[in-house]
Specification:
Elements (H helix, E strand, L loop, with lengths): L1 H14 L9 H8 L3 H4 L7 E2 L3 E4 L11 E4 L4 E3 L5 E2 L1 H9 L3 H8 L1
Antiparallel strand pairs: 1-2, 2-3, 3-4, 4-5
């Protein structure tokens, strides 16, 4: 996970020059479809079904899986209350702006 964060920070440093007008709706849709499993690293779902997968939340220490990812690629943590898509996840995890998160994911 730390390796992924370092890679993301390096990529963001290179992409900071992109203008907001270059951010197209297609970029946002592509970013929203980015799989949560890739963002969570090597962690596998603890409880899984066709529609929902539970993970340990990356935003707090978790003994039992409380981070739900549903079939629409939206996440919700029942412990800390995080709710959002992959863009919101990357924004919170890396403390970056919407534009930077979309650019990183697309």
């Amino acid at each position: 996970l730390l390796k992924l964060i370092d890679t993301c920070k390096r990529q963001l440093a290179m992409l900071r020059g992109i203008k907001i007008s270059q951010l197209l709706p297609a970029h946002i849709e592509k970013a929203k479809l980015y799989p949560f499993e890739d963002l969570l690293g090597i962690q596998r779902s603890i409880i899984s079904s066709r529609k929902r997968r539970f993970f340990r939340c990356p935003f707090h220490s978790d003994r039992t899986p409380s981070f739900l990812v549903d079939k629409e690629n939206l996440a919700h943590c029942f412990s800390c209350g995080f709710h959002g898509d992959t863009i919101a996840f990357v924004m919170k995890q890396n403390s970056i702006s919407f534009k930077e998160a979309v650019t990183l994911l697309s």
